[in-house]
Amino acid sequence: MTDKKKLHVAAFSGGKDSTAMVLAMAVNNYPLDVLLITPTGDELPGMVAHWELISGLVGLPLTVPDGPTLRDVIDSQSALPNFRMRFCTRMIKIVPAIAWVTRKTVEGSAVVMHVGLRADEAERKGIIDAKIETRFPLRELGMGLPEVQAFLRDRRISIPARTDCARCYHQRIGEWWDLWRNHPEIWADAESDEKRIGNTYRSPGRDTWPVPLEGLRRSFESGRVPRGARLNLELFDGADDQAICRVCSMCPRAPPTRVRRPPLEAPRSPLSRFPNPADRRGRQC
Helix, strand or coil for residue 145? Predict the structure, then answer.
């Protein structure tokens, strides 16, 4: 009887930890065969672009297991995900990922899951079956939050401001305002969800703003801007050496002021010290 071939799989959400894990695996010559993502179908464009960017950098396609979308689970449950009914993550992400791993195991692969838990969160565990071999590259490399942030910053890798669903019930009021301003078509669809299903994404008591999205929209349309909206979070646009300060650009008393950023060192390549993704295949770390 021959040994099963190991299939090295990265659980890739696209957040800072899993992004750092995938790139650190490439830099440190870890074996990696699959980038496994579990999209909900409700990601913002920046999230999809980030997945594709990292996929291109490490030279592996994105693998999506069979599973429902957010729309599918809303219809099957006749309910909207909220703080009292958090069924979306389990049904869209966890169950399909476990089913995919199980199928690969039945087909004859010895799956090794690589999960992006950091060295400074030892209390957390992976979600895949205990029978499946699981590795934690960030822990093996001694990477806590400061190291993850520095690793991504040195390589000029930006994580999207939103890595969750566009209409996630867990988002803050400022993020709802951003969605209303920047993605009106998604907002309109989410508003129609509430009317069709008969309940709301937002829960009463979280803040003083209207709970239904229709009422929230009317508040935003009246000119109210919540604290924490991205209007107030980012002072500079663009990545050039001279950026326009948003605060100055909004001032009615003066023309926009050009603010020169301090000179930056040449950024590292995201895969510096890593010659070619094709050379890594089959190596053992």
Answer: helix
Residue whose C-alpha is closest to residue 8's, from 147, 128, 110: 110
Among 56, 134, 73, smallest CA distance to 101 is for 134
At 285, which amino acid appears? C
* CA dist., res. 139 & res. 5, Å (int): 25
Return the structure tokens found at 204.
């009463």
Q: Which domains does the chain have, with CATH numbers?
A: 5-162 (3.40.50.620), 173-260 (no CATH)
In the sheet that holds 5-11, the strands lie side by side as 62-63, 34-36, 5-11, 109-114, 133-135
Encode pLDDT of 169-188 as tens digits: 999 999 999 999 999 999 99
State pLDDT tens for residues 121-168: 988 876 666 678 999 999 999 999 999 999 999 999 999 999 999 999
Q: pTM for the full model?
A: 0.79
